[in-house]
Amino acid sequence: MQGKRLVFTGIGKVEWESFEIPEVLQEDEILVKAQHSLISPGTELAIFTGSHIGFSLPQPPFPLIPSNPGYALVGEVVRTGSSVGVDRTAERIQVGQRVLVEAPHGTFAIVHVRKNPPVILQDQIPNDVAPFIRMAKIGITALRMAPPRLGESVLVLGMGLVGLLCAQLYRIAGSRPVVGTDLLDKRLNLAERFRITPLKGILPEGKEEYRKALVSLTGGQGPSIVIEATGSPVMLPLALELVAEGGRVVLLGSTRGIVHLDAYSLVHRKGVSLIGAHERVQDLSLPALFGWNRLANQDLLVNLFAGGEIRTEGLITHRIPAREAPGMYPQMAARPSDFLGVLLDWRTE
How many C-beta atoms lie closer than 10 Å to residue 48's C-beta? Predict the structure, then answer.
């Protein structure tokens, strides 16, 4: 039995490849038949365009080219390994269940349930909402590494998928106000719908007006926490400039290049903490996490989505049959501002 999946064969090149599905799975594996998957315009597009920082590193953190894009797939469990359903770790997983898994875009996914525990989806979470649990797992890293005090002000730079979800999490945690910044009105309109205070910017000629508006929104001090969610190298010095004295700046977006900044003026004299929040830190035993690991965060997010506390309406900008996926990446690269989430439908493949 064979499946097919997308593969980046070079910068700017995406193709289909076939892969073999074994007759017998390993004991901790499940086979999932895809129904939907979500293209993220962040990491996936950075690899496709060659802008990911990994291309400039002597030892990239993970394979870039060739690689299979995608990490948010919803489908049905059609086969399980011998210990799944018996072993306590995977005792709830059964054939016929609808699950969210971290797997590439493809007709089928083989998932190791210990390394990547699936989300068993509740009826309240439809297929076009479920992939955002995966995106929110990225966003929640900022909150775990820089938890807010009740009423503490937060600024999120970049209202993409991760930024919008992260801002909602800070609001749920009691931050007030939570300000969201972007250059695009349509993304700021989404932010406002999610009860995030929109503030347009930042262009060089509008920097001082922006700063005055931000200070006014945050009680005259500036934001206590600034989340950099764009990945743009030029935004980190700006984040350090905007944060209040003694505040915290969190690197949530993966920075796409080398950053040049005046550490003395922006960090040292201001008493600012600069915090890394790559998703992988959830797997580390850091004191700052207070025991909140990736699985615990996932369980919490499932309940927040099921209860309607995290909203997703408007986050999907394009819905297409999966067979059209290879043509979508060049469009996203050419017009990134037109895209947020792209949902692929695998049900007819």
Answer: 24
Q: CA dihedral in degrees (333, 8, 133, 80; nearest 10)?
A: 160
Number of other residues whose CB lies within 10 A of the CB of residue 339? 20
The CA distances from residue 22 to 1, 79, 109, 168, in Å, are: 7, 11, 12, 41
Q: DSSP alpha helices (H): ranges in 107-160?
A: 131-145
CATH of the domain at 203: 3.40.50.720
Q: What tokens does 163 get?
A: 């930024």
Q: Count, in order, helices (H) and strands (E) of the chain.
A: 9, 15
Q: Which domain holds residue 241?
A: 137-289
- What is the tens place of the pLDDT at every residue in 62-80? 889 999 999 999 999 999 9
Question: Computed over its alpha carbons, how large is the radius of gyration of the chain?
Answer: 21
Residues 185 and 253 in one domain: yes
Q: Is the pTM of this model over 0.85?
A: yes
